Structures are given as structure tokens and as C-alpha cells.
């Protein structure tokens, strides 16, 4: 879909510190930074754990389990947030002296998401004293009932939106409980798990527990917390930015665990210059590949490894799985595109929603495919793959202006027979339906999206921060921009616009466009556009191009040069 380059409107930035560079000051203001305190990424600025509902109950459960040396079972999830949450509690609780810790991650293909009734039956056989859910649990009412009926205590830690009723757990720590006052509603599951440890340490300190033993340094876990936060694509509000900033700082200074070091190495990243986008585009996909194609226990084992050689072996396996995932994804993309091509889409007749099903598509990859199609067509998308017993599983991705989980809840309420289960967030969700009802669901989904999607939401706009002053078109300013982050979801990395003279263009890696552009200052600069539309580029008739770009620093064989990452490219006169 054709994208429109549009400059953000300037807003008042007088409330921000005067020592900031004027361009960076305006960038912060347009991202709704309302107070200088939001730019302070020190750990002391993190919100108070006491604002979490049930945090006191959760600590009581854990302290009782610590004194009794109870058997604790952590129930995780099969994505990167679930893996990092599991690893955070496994390592964090061990720091306090918990001796009987184990974890269990449901198989994506046979058990599905969360503490399901089928998984609950397995848990009952294991006979733990306390079950702690991470990154799941808020919607697992039936499964938790089974566990509770077996006289096993349950502590839910989650961040997903709650439904009409809460599960019958002994404590539920979730900022998205209706009665929870914790201000960062976008905190990831791994962030909630980390806060549980902070609260436990504080409570034990008040009880003089650390008089005879060292107090855990929970900052050691921030590298995992930062990775999981970015991987789950949650909004980087001030609290999440602090968690990510602190984790990145530890990694850059060499204070990270072997598993993350190995993931950085296998992804060919530079640990000392790692950015939040490296988490999202390089490390997280390799971690996620385990849960998508195999067993997320492999990813958790990488994070928990204390030996660098073992970690490297596991990271190599994860890298191979990620390569296989990409090949499967590309095949599915070709098949999906063939279906869509028959509909002869153009910018004027793209439907309001995309809903596709193919029985042999891979359940672990449908979420990525939904995301790719959502990006290409800028429409809410749901992709289904075959399941078991006549049930098919779907993964949804949405666009700004349409809350996908709320839409599914509305559908489920209006037509209770249509969706057997669902859950998720504003921008991503999962669901299961009966295969025979796919056509009925597709019609209902299309109708619901059309009723809610505004014409403005359908426009695909690349917002920019305007033109850079000539004196800012430098490596030094590019470095200032990197340090001004971390950037991410709902706190986007700065994008600028400019009309350049096109000096050179060529395709590299089969689908990327490499360019040499001439700035109005006379400076020549390298640029790259990833995943370019090969029907439009290279354009041998283009002498000038209007580009929306990010100012970047490229490192090659120890040499650093200014580089532009092209986000959108238009032929200019």
C-alpha cells in the first residue's frame, strides 16, 4: 500500500529542559513527554511496587513458600516475553534461597496458550505446592480451578487484559486488573515478574531477613527484563523505557549473562553498541523461534545457562530454528499473496480487513504472517492454521485505531457460538474457532472491522520529524539521537524527511535497495531501503527522491560511517 510522508506538527516544548538540543527537545515533545522526570532513566524513577493490587498477598505466599522450602512450579508461555519472564523468576527466586524451583511451558501445538485444563491436569500430577504463572493466567479460569481443586496454591502474574471474571487464584498481580492502580498498564509480563521480586526483597528486608545472608542484587536481571520488554512490543512509556535503558546499559558495559552474550554473537551484533531495535529485530526472533517451531524450553535454557560454551551451542540451535522459521514464513507469504493477488488489490479497493485460512499453514508462524500482511496493506489481519478436533487457531494483528482484543470480545458476546477462546492486547490477539465456522467468522470479522475502522485509520502515513538542519546531518548528531532513546513501540525512533539527488541505486540481497544520495550541503551519503517494492525501484528515470529516513551509524570492519535507513521513498521532481 502506498504510504504518505507527513511531517508531525510542532508542539510546545517549553516545559522540557533548556539544555536539550532543540531538535531532540521537539522530538520528545511530539512523543508526549510532558515532564522532565520522564527523561530520567535511573532505576530510582521506577513506579512503586505497592501500587500493584495483590502484591502484598503475593509476597505473603512467597515468604511462606520460602520458609517451608515448598516446591514451586513456574508456568510460562511460548513467546519471548514468556521465556524471559520464566527465566527472571527462576534466577530471581533462586537468589533468595528458594531450593525447589521448576518451570513448565505448554506445547503450542497440543496444549495452546496458558494454564489450560489440559496443562492443569499435568500440573496436578507433578504435585507442586505453589504454581506461579508468568505472562499468562488472567484468562485461565478453568485451568486454575482444576489446580486449586487439587489443593495447590496459585499466584498469577500477567499483563494481559482481564475478562468479565477473575480466576480463583490466591493472588493476582496484573496492572490490567480493573481494580489495579499501577500506572504503567503497558508493562510486559517480564516486567511484572521483576516487580514481584522487587516487592519480595523489600518485604523480606523489612522483616530483617537479610541480617544473616546477602541481599539479592536484582539489577543483575535487568538484561533479561529489557529483552523481554522490547520483544513483546509493548508501549515504551517512561517506566518501560527505564527498564530497557537499565538493561541495555548493563549489556553495553559487559554485565550480561552468557545466554544473552551468545544470542548477541550469533546475531552478529556489537554488545557495546546494542540498541533496543537489536532486541526486537535480532535477538527476540531467535528466542521466539524455539517456541514457534520446537519447544520454548530451549530458549529458556539459553537464558539460564551459566556456561558460555553451552550458551553458544544453544544459541546456534536457536539461530538454525530461526532460519527454518524464515523459510516457512516465506513459503506461507507466497501462498497468502497468491490468494490476495486474485482479488486484484490496489490502493483504492483494499478491503477493511484481511482474514485467511489454510489448513497446512504452520501455527507457530501465522502471527508473523499476519504482521507482514498488516504492514503491507495497513489493515487488521487474522490468519488461521489447522488445529485439532475440528478447531483452527488464529493470530490477529491490528493497526492504530482498532483495539483487536476488544473487537473479539464484542464478537464473542454478540455471537457466543463463534469463538471458543481468545485473548490478547490492543494490537495483537489469538483465538480459536470451529473450522466449519470459518466463513461465518470471516463475515462477522469483516463486518465488525468495517463498523469500527475510520477512514483516517485506513490511511498509511509515515510520520516524520521534519527536515534536519544541515548542521545536524552528522555522525555526532546520529549518536546523540541513539543516546536520547531507547526508542520503540509508541515512542518511535526519529524519522526525518529530505529531497536528495539520487546518485546511485542497486538491488542487494535480492530485495533491498542500496543508494548513494547527495544532500543539499553537497555531502554524499550511503542509504539502504530494506524490503523495497521491486515493481517501483530501481527507477532509472529518477534524478531526485524524497525520502523519509532514520539517521544511522554503520559499522564495517571497525570503520564507522553515516548511513540513512530509508523508511519510505518517493520520486521527486
Account of the 3D structure:
- It is a single chain.
- The chain starts with a strand and ends with a strand.
- Helix 5 links the parallel strand 4 and strand 5 (153-157).
- The chain has helices spanning 22-30, 55-68, 80-95, 117-126, 141-149, 189-206, 222-231, 238-252, 258-266, 276-293, 297-304, 308-341, 366-377, 404-414, 438-452, 455-458, 475-483, and strands spanning 4-7, 72-75, 101-104, 130-134, 153-157, 171-173, 354-358, 381-386, 391-397, 421-424, 428-434, 461-464, 496-508, 512-518, 524-529, 544-556, 559-572.
- The strands form four sheets. A five-stranded parallel β-sheet has the order 3-2-4-5-6, with helices on both faces. A five-stranded mixed β-sheet has the order 7-8-9-11-10.
- The chain is an alpha/beta fold and 573 residues long.
- Helices cover 39% and strands 19% of the residues.
- Helix 3 (80-95) crosses helix 11, helix 4 (117-126) packs parallel to helix 5 (141-149) and helix 10 (276-293) packs across helix 11 (297-304).
- The chain is globular, with a radius of gyration of 24 Å.
Amino acid at each position: 500500500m502506498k504510504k504518505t510522508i507527513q511531517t508531525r506538527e510542532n508542539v510546545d516544548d517549553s516545559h522540557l529542559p533548556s539544555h536539550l538540543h532543540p531538535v531532540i527537545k521537539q522530538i520528545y515533545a511530539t512523543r508526549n513527554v510532558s515532564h522532565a522526570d520522564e527523561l530520567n532513566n535511573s532505576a530510582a524513577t521506577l513506579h512503586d511496587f505497592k501500587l500493584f493490587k495483590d502484591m502484598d498477598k503475593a509476597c505473603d505466599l512467597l515468604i511462606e513458600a520460602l520458609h517451608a522450602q515448598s516446591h514451586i512450579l513456574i508456568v510460562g508461555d511460548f513467546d519471548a516475553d514468556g521465556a524471559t519472564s520464566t527465566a527472571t523468576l527462576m534466577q530471581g527466586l533462586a537468589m533468595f534461597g528458594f531450593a525447589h524451583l521448576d518451570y513448565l511451558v505448554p506445547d503450542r501445538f497440543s496444549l495452546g496458550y496458558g494454564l489450560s485444563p489440559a496443562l492443569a491436569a499435568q500440573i496436578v500430577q507433578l504435585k507442586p505446592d505453589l504454581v506461579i504463572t508468568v505472562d499468562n493466567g488472567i484468562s485461565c479460569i478453568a485451568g486454575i480451578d482444576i489446580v486449586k481443586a487439587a489443593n495447590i496454591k496459585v499466584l498469577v502474574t500477567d499483563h494481559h487484559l482481564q475478562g468479565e471474571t477473575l480466576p480463583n487464584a490466591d493472588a493476582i498481580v496484573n496492572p490490567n486488573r480493573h481494580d489495579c492502580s499501577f500506572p504503567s498498564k503497558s508493562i510486559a509480563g517480564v516486567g511484572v515478574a521483576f516487580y514481584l521480586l522487587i516487592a519480595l526483597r523489600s518485604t523480606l528486608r523489612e522483616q530483617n531477613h537479610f541480617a544473616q545472608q546477602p541481599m539479592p542484587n536484582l539489577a543483575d536481571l535487568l538484561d533479561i527484563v529489557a529483552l523481554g520488554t522490547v520483544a513483546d512490543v509493548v508501549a515504551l512509556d517512561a517506566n518501560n523505557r527505564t527498564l530497557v535503558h537499565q538493561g541495555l546499559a548493563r549489556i553495553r558495559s559487559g554485565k550480561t549473562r552468557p545466554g544473552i552474550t551468545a544470542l548477541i554473537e550469533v546475531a552478529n551484533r556489537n554488545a557495546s553498541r546494542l540498541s533496543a531495535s537489536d532486541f526486537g529485530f535480532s535477538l527476540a526472533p531467535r528466542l521466539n523461534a524455539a517456541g514457534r517451531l520446537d519447544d520454548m524450553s530451549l530458549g529458556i535454557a539459553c537464558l539460564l545457562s551459566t556456561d558460555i560454551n553451552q550458551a553458544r551451542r544453544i544459541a546456534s540451535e536457536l539461530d538454525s530454528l530461526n532460519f527454518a522459521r524464515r523459510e516457512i514464513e516465506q513459503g506461507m507469504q507466497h501462498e497468502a499473496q497468491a490468494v490476495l493477488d486474485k482479488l486484484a488489490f490496489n490502493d483504492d479497493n483494499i478491503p477493511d480487513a484481511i482474514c485467511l485460512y489454510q489448513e497446512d499453514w504452520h501455527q507457530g508462524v501465522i502471527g508473523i504472517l499476519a504482521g507482514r500482511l498488516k504492514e503491507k496493506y495497513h489493515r487488521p489481519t487474522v490468519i488461521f492454521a489447522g488445529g485439532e478436533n475440528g478447531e483452527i487457531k488464529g493470530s490477529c494483528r491490528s493497526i492504530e485505531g482498532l483495539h483487536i482484543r476488544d473487537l473479539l470480545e464484542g464478537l464473542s458476546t454478540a455471537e457466543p457460538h463463534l469463538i471458543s477462546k481468545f485473548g490478547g492486547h490492543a494490537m495483537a490477539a489469538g483465538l480459536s474457532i470451529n473450522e466449519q465456522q470459518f466463513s461465518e467468522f470471516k463475515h462477522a470479522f469483516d463486518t465488525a472491522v468495517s463498523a469500527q475502522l475510520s477512514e483516517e485509520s485506513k490511511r498509511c502515513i509515515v510520520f516524520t520529524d521534519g527536515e534536519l538542519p544541515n548542521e545536524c546531518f552528522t555522525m555526532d548528531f546520529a549518536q546523540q539521537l541513539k543516546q536520547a532513546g531507547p526508542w520503540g513501540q509508541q515512542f518511535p525512533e526519529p524519522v526525518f524527511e529530505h529531497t536528495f539527488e539520487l546518485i546511485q541505486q542497486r538491488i542487494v540481497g535480492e530485495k533491498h535497495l542500496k543508494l548513494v544520495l547527495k544532500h543539499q550541503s553537497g555531502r554524499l551519503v550511503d542509504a539502504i531501503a530494506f524490503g523495497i517494492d521491486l515493481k517501483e525501484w530501481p527507477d532509472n528515470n529518477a534524478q531526485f527522491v524524497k525520502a523519509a529516513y532514520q539517521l544511522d551509524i554503520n559499522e564495517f570492519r571497525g570503520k564507522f560511517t553515516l548511513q540513512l535507513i530509508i523508511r519510505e521513498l518517493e520520486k521527486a521532481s
